[in-house]
User: Fold this.
Amino acid sequence: MTLKVDVDTKVGFIHGVRNLADLMAEKKVKASYFLSMGPDNSGRALKRLFRPGFLAKQMRSGAASAYGPVTMLYGLLLPGPIIAKAAPNLPNRLINEGHEVGIHAWDHVFWHDCLRRMGRARLSRELGLAFGLFEDITGFWPGTFASPGWQITDQAFEALFDIGVRHVSTTRGVRAFFPRLKDKTLPLLEIPTTLPTLDEILGRNGVTRNNAAKYLADLVKPEKLNVFTLHGEVEGREMAFVLKEFLQRLLDRGVVFERLIETADRILSETTPPALGYYYGELPGRAGDMALEQGFAPRENDK
Assistant:
């Protein structure tokens, strides 16, 4: 079982990451954290309100309370603060406690909303800023990346490989693979998120805050790739009790937790992953489209 922690905002970084690190220390669980390093421009995501299904998802999942009113003003009425500089000790704390730490984005909203229109120069700049600040803070170059909103392109895969990344998590699916691009296959291991996220299941199929942990734990299957994406803003704050129960249920079953880098090493030692493409499609409970592993049927992600 792999826990992938995406951190999108300043509040998720300052408060959510601390809470998650404390909980994982208590449970003796290691995870892979992916940090947004640059400006928190969360307010600019409000334009997604016009996207079909977005407002309904926000209402179901309680996103407004997860992010808070100040966060939703960043990039609109308030300047977007540089997230990593708000608590520069946190990445080193995570590393010292044995977690894997990588890059989520420089500007999370910009990557999420504009990647598919982004030229290579701007793409390389976004990655260079994030990786460079990470190196300034920690003293080393990160080797892993997880994309905002599961948004990825061939050009982005190539830029990540060129910058030195060797394993990523940028799609939704059921198995690890090497990305097959238009004219080549990259030796860059893609490890997709396999489980639905908490905000995708809440308010659907009878799932509530009180039974979400059991619902998610029941989706974890032995001998399968199990990757769960959680968020500093959600499970690190208001929904921490759901995560705590989820972890305990899995620990009681004897489930072994591993970081994404360990998942990658294990997969590469046991088998030769296939070369697969990806496509953009929708998943139940989430507004907008995202990158899906070739051959992955969205219904597999919905119990």
Observations:
- The two ends are 18 Å apart (CA to CA).
- The chain has one domain: 2-301.
- Residues 286 and 297 are 15 Å apart (CA to CA).
